[in-house]
Amino acid sequence: MLSYIIRRLLLMFPTLIGIVTITFIAVQFVPGGPIDQIKSLLRGHSGVLSEAGGRALDRTGVKAGELDPKHMEQLKKVYHLDRPLWERYLRTFLWYSPSDPKLPLMENLFNHDSWEGFLVFKFGDSFYRNKSVLELIKEKLPVSASLGITSFFMTYIICILLGIAKAVKNGSRFDTATSFIVLVGYSVPGFVLAIFLIVLFGPGDGAVAHLIPLAGLTSAGTPGYEIWSLWEKFVDYLHHLAAPLLCYVIGGFATLTMLTKNAILEEMRKQYVLTARAKGLPEKTVLYKHILKNSLIPLVTGFPIGFLAMFFSGSLLLEQIFTLDGLGLLSYQAVIQRDYPIVLGSLFIFSLMALVGQLLTDISYVLIDRRITFEESQG
Predict the structure, then answer these.
(1) Are residues 93 and 170 in the same domain?
(2) Quick one: pLDDT band at residue 374, thresholds 50, 70, 90?
């Protein structure tokens, strides 16, 4: 297993480099970069001035809506577009520039400030927000992590318990009714349910009842919030979390519930279960000690990647509808604004977490089911 883990870790680097390289090449050919957006903004203002009788030329003789060449060069330096393409590409991954030329070479080489790039976890600063990419992700992380952590554990607990109940009562009215409910929830998109809830129970004047708060996950900023007790703040947090959480998990019950049910039913038909029943073991002992232990292997092995993903989960439409400032909205705005450091930095972090989660999933297969070995599969 150790050799397999080492090989997988070594393969992560070319995989990450390939993902970021493809994205880096794509953003170079996509029109509407930061300078193009400034030009477009100036042209829009020049159109307003022209309609109002404004002058077509400024004092420097530059046409309205056009950038002065000096300002153009300054903007290129601000956005690091004055460097050649190959240098920008290398700086994305790893670049050495001495922090203090007076220091000895070896001291500079081992100084973290002398290096930049994704491989040393330096993702640069945002073009528009005047903050580093890591600071922005830390700011948006509480919203996405709140939804991700709560939805992850809620989905796992409800689906496993419901799947067990459906397998035990297979073919009954309870099984049919719950299958219909989870499949209806699976077929309803989360953003459609969100709009429906906002219309009926939102803060608008046409709502039937005002049950959904206006924005955010807390009432911070409202008068008197600072003097609320811890219990009142917790209840307020649940109040804000309820509607987006319902829309977030509504489509995730069907797959995990049916997977749990079918896995248990498959184990029930195996010979060791018949043997355990023939020995006179109670049905609960057969179910929870023998059947459940083996049938939940596919669910438990998916836990590592789900555990890592829950901290960085985000939904653009749901965050937009419920006015939540999370990672989904941040990524969308970065793409629209061509904020390349956020786009590439967040992509690198998410890809790294996905690769680590996949490795932990493979390892958990071996730890849970001793019949699986990497050596036999490789042989």
Answers:
(1) no
(2) low
Which candidate, 346, 353, 351, places its Cα nearest to that of 308? 353
Condensed to tens digits (0 to 9), the pLDDT of residues 343-356 reads 888 888 888 888 88
Q: Could you tell me which of 350, 344, 360 has the C-alpha nearest to residue 310?
A: 350
Question: Helices in 30-172 by DSSP H: which ranges?
Answer: 34-51, 69-78, 85-93, 105-109, 133-168
- Structurally, the chain folds into a number of domains equal to 3
Q: Compute the radius of gyration of the chain from its Cα atoms.
A: 28
The reply to whether 251 and 162 lie within a common domain is: yes
Q: Is residue 354 part of a domain?
A: yes
CA angle 355, 361, 369 (to 5 degrees): 155
pLDDT above 70: residue 200: yes
Q: Do 231 and 251 belong to one domain?
A: yes
User: In terms of domains, do 225 and 323 share one?
Assistant: yes
25 in a domain, yes or no? no
- What pTM, to 2 d.p., does this model score? 0.75
User: What residue type is assigned to position 279 of the chain?
Assistant: K
Q: Are residues 66 and 87 both part of a single domain?
A: no
What distance in Å separates the CA atoms of residue 187 and residue 156, rounded to the nearest whole number? 19
